[in-house]
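Need residues for this backbone.
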């Protein structure tokens, strides 16, 4: 898949830092996001995923605060590599790639819904300094551009916690989740696309959705690049 944005700057950047496939690390042309081989290996499992909770192993029995979900990929193989390279902070390609994939799904499958903005799952200031960007926001920006609605990243924020959600034990995970807060604001019936890279237990996105609902938003669509099959 080709990249269209910032053509000149990407070309110049490529002279200094050659473009690499985020999934296999092979060199690719400066205007590509993913190499042809990995593009063919990234197979959406969207049809197998619950449209309400976004998981293959449905978690709808839990209390969920978001209303619908678009989560096209499974966190394994080249998808896992692509997301890890996005998380490591050295390659945004996979965020752009999956952001465009999500935008197409939203345009086709959710065309009867009118969304007002895209809200990325927040990152702590410490992690943001370390990585240089919020990976959920990279995906959110592509959705925003494609749908012509703004990214609103100031509503939710996260206090500093010790490490990333993925490696934490259950009690630490809870602490990590409650570190997400909302700025006092009235969302007054706004319909929101809540964006993240990977959902595992769904508790992080659910916390965000709960906070957004408590501020009076309308419906929430969870748009995430991938879900891990584990509960
Ligand atoms: Zn590749
Ligand atoms: Zn479900």
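Answer:
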């Amino acid at each position: 898949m080709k990249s269209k944005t910032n053509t000149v700057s990407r070309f110049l950047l490529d002279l200094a830092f050659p473009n690499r496939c985020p999934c296999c690390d092979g060199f690719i042309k400066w205007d590509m996001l993913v190499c042809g081989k990995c593009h063919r290996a990234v197979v959406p499992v969207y049809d197998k995923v619950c449209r309400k909770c976004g998981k293959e192993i449905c978690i709808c029995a839990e209390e969920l605060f978001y209303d619908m979900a678009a989560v096209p990929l499974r966190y394994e193989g080249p998808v896992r590599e692509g997301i890890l390279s996005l998380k490591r902070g050295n390659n945004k390609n996979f965020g752009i790639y999956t952001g465009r994939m999500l935008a197409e799904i939203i345009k086709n499958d959710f065309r009867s819904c009118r969304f007002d903005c895209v809200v990325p799952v927040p990152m702590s200031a410490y992690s943001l300094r370390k990585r240089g960007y919020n990976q959920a926001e990279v995906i959110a920006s592509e959705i925003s551009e494609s749908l012509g609605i703004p990214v609103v990243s100031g509503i939710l924020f996260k206090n500093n916690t010790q490490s990333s959600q993925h490696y934490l034990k259950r009690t630490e995970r809870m602490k990590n989740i409650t570190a997400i807060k909302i700025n006092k604001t009235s969302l007054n019936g706004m319909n929101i696309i809540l964006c993240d890279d990977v959902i595992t237990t769904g508790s992080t996105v659910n916390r965000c959705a709960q906070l957004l609902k408590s501020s009076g938003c309308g419906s929430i669509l969870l748009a995430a690049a991938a879900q891990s099959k584990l509960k």
